[in-house]
Every structure is written in C-alpha cells, then in structure tokens.
Write a structure and sequence with these properties.
Layout (H helix, E strand, L loop, with lengths): L10 H5 L4 H7 L9 E4 L7 H7 L4 E5 L2 H13 L5 E5 L2 H4 L8 E7 L7 H11 E12 L17 H10 L3 E9 L3 E7 L5
Parallel strand pairs: 1-2, 1-4, 2-3, 4-5
Antiparallel strand pairs: 5-7, 6-7
The site of S-adenosylmethionine has 20 residues, from strand 2 and helix 5.
Amino acid sequence: MKVRESDMPEEGLWKSFFSPDVILKKLGLTGKMHDAVDFGCGYGTFTIPAAKRIQGTLHGFDVEPDMIEASQRFVELQDLGNVRLYLRDFMADGTGLPDASVDYAMLFNILHAEDPVGLLSEAFRILHDGGTAGIMHWNYDPETPRGPPMNIRPRPEQCAHWAESAGFIISRRHIKLPPYHYGIVARKGKRQ
Ligand SMILES: C[S@@+](CC[C@H](N)C(=O)[O-])C[C@H]1O[C@@H](n2cnc3c(N)ncnc32)[C@H](O)[C@@H]1O
C-alpha cells in the first residue's frame, strides 16, 4: 500500500529543498560502502548522488511508475551503471533483497508511513551486521513549505524510538539538515 501523504510535488520544487551531497555525508553514507537501498526513490534526488558515492549497487524502490521513470531518466543521463530500480510496493511485499546484503538503507521523507516499525524492520533485515540506516524527515514545524500533516508527522525522538523497536542502535539522534529537515543515524549492531 502506498504510504499516506507520499505524493510528490513538481520536481524542481522538491529538489530545491535539499542539498543531497551534504545530507548523505552527514547521514553517514561513505565511499567505502558497497550496496545501498533507497526506500521510495521518488525523483532520484538522493538515489543518484548516493549511487555516485558507493562502490556497489544502489537499489531504488518506488510504487509509482512515474517516479521510477523519472529516476531512470537521470540514471541514463548520467550513464550510471550501478543503479537498479524496482517498481514495487515495499510496504506490502518488502524489498525482496536477501537478508544481510546491503551496507546502507535510506529512509528519507517516508517514516510517516502507517507502519514505520515494519518498514524499519525490513531495512534492518537486509542490512549487514554493522550496516547503517539513514533517516531523514521534515522538521516538526507547521511552517515548512511541504511535509506531511502535523498529526502524522513524526518528531525525531519518535523516529529514533521506532528504529530502536526495529532492533537498531541509534548513533546520532538529531542531526540538523537545514533548512527544513532533521536526520538520524541508526546502526544494526553486530550480533554477539
Ligand atoms: C515523499 S516521497 C520521498 C522521495 C525520496 N525519498 C526523497 O526524499 O526525495 C515518498 C516516495 O515513496 C514512494 N512510496 C510511497 N509508498 C510506497 C510503497 N508502499 N512502496 C514503494 N514506494 C512507495 C512514493 O511514490 C514517493 O515517490
């Protein structure tokens, strides 16, 4: 099922809200990482710069054919050979990726989902031990120019709590990502 309130505005407007390279760096996506996953790739705002940073494959998922097409256009324009895009409902069907198979999971502007812990649990499942989840969302502030309605918009401490419920250890609880966002870095702890 498509996450509530997850329609995208016009592409230029959406992209004007972010500095993707700065955000990815602050959220711990490093050039040493191999495979990564983008849950809800949208216009590829983060998919494309993330693919350029990592050494392996960037798996981007979206339930909207238009979003997959938009991302695919940028993949082709930039001649990227390490992006796989999937038209798939990850809330209903998961990612289909194997357990413990990726280094990084991107959960950007998506945790206002009906079942955030279920989504985070899927990210946890596919991450290697020691892998990282980067969470970003709109500030809990009704003045932001977009973002989910306040009654379903999560605060950073709520996202951190959900991540802990899914098994993650929180490394960074509240990173400011101006002008409109915050971030959290969560790790899948090594099993003893
Ligand atoms: C608010 S947008 C965020 C896009 C991107 N993460 C970003 O921050 O630029 C959420 C995206 O998730 C996609 N989406 C919503 N529910 C989904 C689901 N159940 N499975 C796959 N994609 C989904 C939407 O189509 C949309 O492109």
